[in-house]
Amino acid sequence: MWSHFARADEPDQSFNQQQLDTFHKRLAILISQGINPQFVHIANSAAALTNKDSYKNIVRWGIGLYGLSPDVNTLGSSGTLNLKPAMKLKAKLHLVKEVEAGAQVGYGGTATVNANTKIGVVTMGYADGIPRNTNNSAGVFVAGKRAPLLGRVSMDQFVVDLGLQSTAKTGDEVVIFGDGSAGEYTIDEWASAASTINYEIVTRIGPRVPRIYPRG
């Protein structure tokens, strides 16, 4: 027997309590009729973090399994909740080149560089799950510093502003997002830059991206 909270990540828990009370009543009816469900669950990550009464014999640890907060605005950040982000996304620089001030970058020339700089082409795009509408408050971490996104995300690549003094070179590995401990962008920062939620950032990564599951 199972159900799902509609508002588990909201500060006002009154509706969630109504749902839980109804769930308990229905469970009691089943038990009174000699029906004992093997598995009983209603708690998602948000409920698991805020309401121990919602624990049954299973807890559906969804976004929490990624070490992410279900809602940074209402429940606090991963750190506040004692969670550690577990997913890191990496790619490579396909090309590094210098461009002059005034150069336009990307489809539609939506980005114009204000000064001479180096740009890097990253080997991942919206076909791999990078949100096309991401703004320049996200980017990659490479050669020891952040490089913000420049222009629109394309199908198979996107461009970042490395800065004129960057030591990054073609073939270098970049970190698109991680836990932030080394200075890289976080999943929550990418979500904010794409006007979406962290759930979408981690679940939309496409099948072309290899998965590696570290042990220990």
Automatic annotation (TrEMBL):
<dbReference type="InterPro" id="IPR009006">
    <property type="entry name" value="Ala_racemase/Decarboxylase_C"/>
</dbReference>
<dbReference type="Pfam" id="PF00842">
    <property type="entry name" value="Ala_racemase_C"/>
</dbReference>
<dbReference type="GO" id="GO:0009252">
    <property type="term" value="P:peptidoglycan biosynthetic process"/>
</dbReference>
<dbReference type="GO" id="GO:0008784">
    <property type="term" value="F:alanine racemase activity"/>
</dbReference>
<dbReference type="InterPro" id="IPR000821">
    <property type="entry name" value="Ala_racemase"/>
</dbReference>
<dbReference type="InterPro" id="IPR029066">
    <property type="entry name" value="PLP-binding_barrel"/>
</dbReference>
<dbReference type="GO" id="GO:0005829">
    <property type="term" value="C:cytosol"/>
</dbReference>
<dbReference type="GO" id="GO:0030170">
    <property type="term" value="F:pyridoxal phosphate binding"/>
</dbReference>
<dbReference type="InterPro" id="IPR011079">
    <property type="entry name" value="Ala_racemase_C"/>
</dbReference>
<dbReference type="Pfam" id="PF01168">
    <property type="entry name" value="Ala_racemase_N"/>
</dbReference>
<protein>
    <submittedName>
        <fullName>Unannotated protein</fullName>
    </submittedName>
</protein>
<keyword id="KW-0413">Isomerase</keyword>
<keyword id="KW-0663">Pyridoxal phosphate</keyword>
<feature type="domain" description="Alanine racemase C-terminal">
    <location>
        <begin position="86"/>
        <end position="214"/>
    </location>
</feature>
<dbReference type="InterPro" id="IPR001608">
    <property type="entry name" value="Ala_racemase_N"/>
</dbReference>
<dbReference type="GO" id="GO:0030632">
    <property type="term" value="P:D-alanine biosynthetic process"/>
</dbReference>
